[in-house]
User: Fold this.
Amino acid sequence: MVGKVYIVGAGPGRKDLLTLRAYELIKKADVILHDELIGEVADLLKESKAEVINVGKRSGRHRKSQGEINEMLVEFARKGKMVVRLKGGDPCIFGRGGEEAEFLAKHGIPFEFVPGVTSAIAVPEAVGIPLTHRRYDPALVFITGRESRERLNWKALAELNATIVVLMGVGRAVEIAEKLIENGKDPETPVAIIEKGFSEEQRTLITKLGELAKTAERAEVENPAIIVIGGVVELYDLLFEFCLCE
Assistant:
């Protein structure tokens, strides 16, 4: 009998932000293939009877290629296993969950998406930056710094009155700032860089779009980091002191 694959979001790294559904599946799984950036959730894997396999990919360091991961999911499912594919954040927000689901479907393997709290929203909130606010931009856009930049319509992005959230974009901070400014985005637009959210090394840097690259370089910011570009960043000065994230 063919098993089933659960493509599960681990949330932004805190155990108490993992969904109950995800926790139940972790405890019941036969096999867990997990990403690198799952934070405290890694501790919960010890409670599972499953075979646990780290298939994490970091920039320049891949334990398994995406193709190998896809094949492993199919192989385990065909053995009748209950498979949890555990991903940081939400599996379908720049997590390749859709690609893995597509591969499974083509090979006749049933699957289920289990949503997780995406770091794109959770990390800014943790430092007192709400991504939407009626006083500021009425739209919200997520982009990733790792994908092919030519696929972005920079002119449309710069002209849209939207808060822009960039995941894994520190390495392309120069290009991101230049492209937005060249296409009309005000260089005085407030920017927050939140490094290593929900960890002991978490820190927040507040700057402006025109100074984004210099700020990131001077502070030696490393991924994982979230970059928030937009007027809502102004709320940080007021809200951070009273934002009690324990």
Observations:
- The chain is about 30% helix and 25% strand.
